[in-house]
Amino acid sequence: MTSPTSTPRSQDSDSFLGAVDLTGLDGLFSAEEKQTALKVRGLVDELIRPNIARWYEEAVFPTEIIPELGKLGVLGMHLDGYGCAGRSAVEYGLAAQELEAGDSGLRTFVSVQGSLAMSAIHKHGSEEQKNQWLPAMAAGEAIGCFGLTEPTAGSDPASMLTTARQEPGGDWVLNGSKRWIGLASLADVAIIWAQTEDHGNGRGVRGFVVPTDTPGFRAEVINAKLSMRASVQCEIHLEDVRLPESAMLPADSAVGLKGPFQCLNEARYGIIWGVMGAARDSFNTVLDYTLGRTQFGHRLAGFQLTQAKLADMAVAINKGYLLAHQIGRTKDGVLPGTVTPAMISTGKLDNCRVAIEISREAREMLGGNGITLEHSPLRHANNLESVRTYEGTDEVHQLTIGRTLTGIGAFTPTA
Question: Considering only Cβ atoms within 10 Å of each terminal Cβ, which end of the chain, N or C, has fewer?
Fold first, then answer.
């Protein structure tokens, strides 16, 4: 039997993506883009991989990494100005997949901070709001969260019960609850979406910039989780939270649900890339494991069934990267056309499906050892159950695609 080399086979490739790159993916990216990915990979290798098993087991989110992420420039990295890096959509995607190769909870932090909270302020906020919050958030000196989902309104945000009432003096008073809100207990600022009284002025749902030290704001950590354990999700309670008139996101683009949906599509875009990192890490783990483990006198990697599974996994990962690349280049304006909701839903739906199946398959190929925290695939699979659910379930994305294909909206049941 040939002894494994000192360099794992999964990394023994000219491609920065490793042995999984069967289709020349490396050539799709510039040297600068690959350098961005490798810088993020270096942080993951140094700070995340040695500790993630313990953090996951103990349900700890490592707040000490936040300043390091700020120094790396990945917080709001796709936004321009106000201390943000202003990088391309593809570079952000490459960063996201490196982060999620470490753990979905790490990529989720960057997504909630940058694609949700910071994007809401950047897209819809006043200059005062942008200058107050974005530079500190980009540096990791302030943390944000994004409050849309409610205990009784998950996939149907139009039925939210949280209200914002404007009083004669101009102040807004918020009441209600939000659930599954990432980072809320750590956050310095929350973007809260609420129903406003409609006086014929088209307000409807509006967003508010809420400092979390405002009286009446309370965040409770949801502890009993089987997924995303190295991450923080909370329930927010708003009891007569009084805000100045200037707390509302003022832009016309923030009127109604189009405001939060624009931010959700930014987060969904990051997921399209991110889950490929989890899939690639699961593949790398099982490739190296099967090359190094002997059963029945042969390396596991030499069995036909093992190679068939590895081949299917690698092909699926290549297709996932190609899909993410197509959407990213379109988003950057390099390819013709504009990114549509159906395009985002296609990427989020299929890449999540692919990633969760690959991580499950990899766990199975590890045998009994696969249920331990020594190996990443089952941790990735558990995390991906959450990633597949948040920012739109499979069904929401299927109906978004179906609406585009048929011209018929089927989100509400027919009689």
Answer: C
